[in-house]
Specification:
Layout: E1 3-9, H1 16-27, E2 34-39, E3 43-49, E4 60-61, E5 67-75, H2 79-82, H3 92-103, E6 113-121, E7 126-131, E8 140-144, E9 147-151, H4 154-157, H5 169-178, E10 192-193, E11 198-203, E12 206-211, H6 226-242, E13 251-254, H7 259-271, E14 277-283, H8 288-300, E15 303-308, H9 313-325, H10 340-344, E16 349-351, H11 356-359, H12 374-387, H13 407-413, H14 416-419
Parallel strand pairs: 13-14, 13-16, 14-15
Antiparallel strand pairs: 1-3, 1-9, 2-3, 4-5, 5-6, 6-7, 7-11, 8-9, 8-10, 11-12
């Protein structure tokens, strides 16, 4: 995955251009990526990009060259924000930089999109990082010996030999228990993940992080019939899809027989002319997904492609999949990567349904409605995860962790898995 890189140091970094270039190569080394780098003795900003979203060179600078920004991702619904502002380009990075110049950190509350942006203030010698409300573009950071490093992949941080390589045993235990690492941990003790909807600042050696938004349920809802609720839901879904529809670049949808991709297919078909949309399905020939996807694609006139998911795909793709996810994704669940090269031959932009079941209430269980003491609260939540089959090694089972971890490793972890 492409993204952002950079550093801020309390004193001059030996060969800063070499450090930044090494971070860029570690993030993505293929020639097809667009690389923008800018560095001085004590700081550096960079972006490694596909050149599809906001293809203009970065950093983008304010007129007085004091503020500079690198950004990965995109902003949605920007027409009102652009109105009455003098902008030289249609770049979201330029717009965000001007909003920050006018309003400071408060500008984050106006932003809707999927992005991470890093802003450098030369006069104040201050770094500011803002990400979107769901943290869809991950950013990792580390602070070592007066040096602050950040990157869209842990592998880019490892380009700096100063970074400690010590693993985080609690993160490892969490990963093997829940299939993912919790909170801001990574597999390296020195590296953290920026939480979603956050503003990070680094100035004079001091690091600060605070949220600018938290999800909230409405305290009161209007009385409506089911049809009215469905109309509102469809309006929101149409708007969500429409704001992400790319221009005339070849586009494709990862299509299964599931609810997420079926809904997205129908809505994309409303915006794409017949025959302009590709759909991709992988699996075992003759499986339900293959049959349903073929029928659905035919309904809207999409150009459908089926790829067999061969039993040895992990042998060929596992190492690269682990590299792209920095080891934070279970390789068994990375089957979407198995046929990505084939899909890229047809489409530059891919759409994918994600977490539709959770957003539609799949994760809301009656156990969550009760009031519990702390110990019972943990067990109630774990029971839901256990029922849904998303716990790999149950920490409450008599031999749960003992089957997996040595006594020495368990002593290192202690109760850290559940303390998160």
């Amino acid at each position: 995955m492409p993204g952002l890189i950079g550093f801020v140091a309390s004193s001059a970094v030996p060969a800063p251009e070499r450090l930044l270039a090494s971070m860029a190569r570690a993030l993505e080394s293929e020639d097809r990526f667009q690389v923008d780098l800018h560095q001085k003795a004590t700081w550096g900003l960079g972006r490694v990009s596909l050149g599809i979203l906001n293809p203009q060179p970065q950093p983008f600078w304010s007129a007085d060259r004091n503020l500079g920004i690198v950004m990965e991702g995109e902003l949605y619904d920007t027409r009102a924000l652009r109105r009455d502002r003098q902008l030289a380009t249609d770049s979201d990075a330029e717009l965000l930089l001007q909003l920050y110049a006018e309003q400071g950190e408060a500008c984050a509350c106006q932003l809707n999109g999927a992005f991470t942006a890093v802003i450098w203030d030369q006069r104040a010698q201050k770094l500011t990082v803002i990400n979107d409300r769901l943290g869809l573009y991950p950013l990792y950071y580390a602070q070592i010996n007066g040096r602050f490093l950040f990157a869209s992949g842990v592998r880019a941080l490892l380009a700096d030999p100063v970074l400690p390589r010590d693993p985080d045993p609690i993160a490892i235990a969490q990963f093997l228990t829940f299939d993912h690492v919790l909170d801001d941990r990574t597999l390296l003790a020195a590296v953290r993940l920026l939480p979603q909807a956050s503003i990070l600042t680094f100035q004079d050696g001091r690091l600060a992080i605070h949220p600018y938004w938290r999800p909230q349920y409405s305290r009161a809802y209007p009385l409506q019939d089911e049809e009215a609720w469905m109309d509102q839901l469809m309006a929101h879904l149409r708007r969500a899809v429409a704001r992400q529809v790319a221009d005339d670049r070849p586009a494709g949808l990862l299509l299964s027989g599931g609810l997420d991709s079926r809904v997205i297919l129908a809505l994309l078909a409303e915006t794409k002319s017949r025959g302009r949309l590709h759909t991709f399905t992988w699996g075992i020939p003759g499986c339900d997904d293959a049959r349903l996807a073929r029928e659905l694609a035919a309904q809207v006139g999409a150009r459908h492609h089926f790829f067999e998911l061969k039993p040895d795909w992990l042998i060929h793709k596992a190492a690269e999949a682990v590299r792209l996810t920095d080891g934070l994704g279970n390789v068994v669940n990375l089957h979407a990567y198995a046929t990505l090269d084939e899909e890229a031959a047809f489409a530059q932009v891919l759409y994918k349904g994600f977490l539709g079941d959770a957003m539609m209430g799949f994760g809301l269980r009656y156990q969550f409605w009760g009031e519990y003491d702390e110990a019972t609260w943990e067990r109630a939540h774990l029971q839901v995860h256990r029922d849904q089959g998303v716990i790999t090694f149950d920490p409450w089972a008599p031999d749960g962790h003992a089957r997996l971890f040595s006594p020495e490793f368990q002593r290192q972890v202690g109760d850290g898995v559940m303390a998160a």
